[in-house]
Amino acid sequence: MILTVTPNTALDVTYTVDSLVPDQVHRVSAVRQRAGGKGINVARVLYALGADTRAVALAGGAAGSSVAQELAASGVPAELVPIAGETRRTTTVLSADDHAVTLFNEPGPVITAGEWAALAAAAARHRPEVLVCSGSLPPGAPPDGYAQLAAFGVPTVLDTSGDALLAGLAGRPAVVKPNARELFEVTGIRDVETAAAELRKAGAGAVVVSLGRDGLLAVTAAGTWHAAPPAELSGNATGAGDAAVAGIALGICRHEPWPQLLRRAVALSGAAVLGPLAGDVDLPHYHREHPRVAVRARAS
Predict the structure, then answer these.
(1) pLDDT of the residue at 300
(2) How far apart are CA 183 and CA 198, in angstroms?
């Protein structure tokens, strides 16, 4: 079973407008909301693929109740650990004319040491084969919170940024998955392969870097690979990274070789761009494009 942990859960609200213009009043053509946060998005993708998965997350207040109701309606297996604070909202504005995506992410509620301990205890209870730790840490969480979770002793995929990423390396995660900007921010190194190698020296078993339209670069103990999508896609890219993490976690759970794992991750990432909301994947596109993803080894 693949367990995802989301400390900074969100109620995702998505507005669709004809075009986004500063200093103008906008008429919203569609409003959709659902449970969100990166780990929940990962679990949603895995559930759509038929994988054995469960999401563990913190939730509180009216927004937290909406998260619980939506997860129950969706069928995604989840355990929500209650908190006193109000679950944050994230707002996405989709511009129909140019497919631009604008996000507004709230910081999240302050959590207590007891609430964090309850989240960690819930995660430990499930005894997963693979653990996915995703997203920002909310205010009040221990800075090394992800390192604590990774110390459970199962392969861990870590998808976060900044100080949470650096501190999480102490837990020796099997894979970390920054994007190129996040990688530069924590290393100060612009060359992606060199920067990824630095994260491996600091504790990561492997580093898989999201390159946006150019796919994924994996720097591992077994070698370095670049996986590229067959075609450029336009749509809502907010959940593409989470879909890639789902593919990585599933590949680890199935003990797949890196080229096979990366092929699935890139195909899922593209399928997420075509989904209407973060956590959705266009499964026909995924199955069609999966064999067309090009994976090439790179010299060390």
Answers:
(1) 63
(2) 10
Say what the pLDDT of residue 123 is: 96
> Catalytic pick from 12, 242, 280, 282?
242
Q: What are phi and psi of 31, to 5 degrees?
A: -125, 125
CA distance 5 to 201: 25
The mean per-residue pLDDT over the stretch 243-258 comes to 98
Q: φ and ψ at 248, to 5 degrees?
A: -65, -45
Distance CA(300)–CA(291), nearest Å, equals 25
Q: What does the DSSP assignment read for 67-110?
A: HHHHHHHHT--EEEEE-SSPPEEEEEEEETTT--EEEEE-----
Tens digits of per-residue pLDDT, 41-64?
A: 999 999 999 999 999 999 999 999
What is the secondary structure of the chain as a DSSP string?
-EEEEETT-EEEEEEEES---TTS---EEEEEEEEESHHHHHHHHHHHTT--EEEEEEE-HHHHHHHHHHHHHHT--EEEEE-SSPPEEEEEEEETTT--EEEEE-------HHHHHHHHHHHHHT--SEEEEESPPPTTS-TTHHHHHHTTSS-EEEE--HHHHHHHGGG--SEE--BHHHHHHHH---SHHHHHHHHHHTT-SEEEEE-GGG-EEEEETTEEEEEE-SS---S-GGGHHHHHHHHHHHHHHTT--HHHHHHHHHHHHHHHHTSSSTT---HHHHHHHGGG-EEEEE--
The answer on pLDDT for 277 being more than 90 is no
Which pairing describes strands 2-6 and 53-59: parallel, antiparallel, or unpaired? parallel
- Residue 185 CB partners (closer than 8 Å, separation 6+): 161, 162
Catalytic site includes residue 214: no
Residue 287 class from Cβ within 10 Å (0-12 exposed, 13-18 middle, 19+ buried)? exposed
Q: For the full predicted model, state whether its pTM sits above 0.85.
A: yes
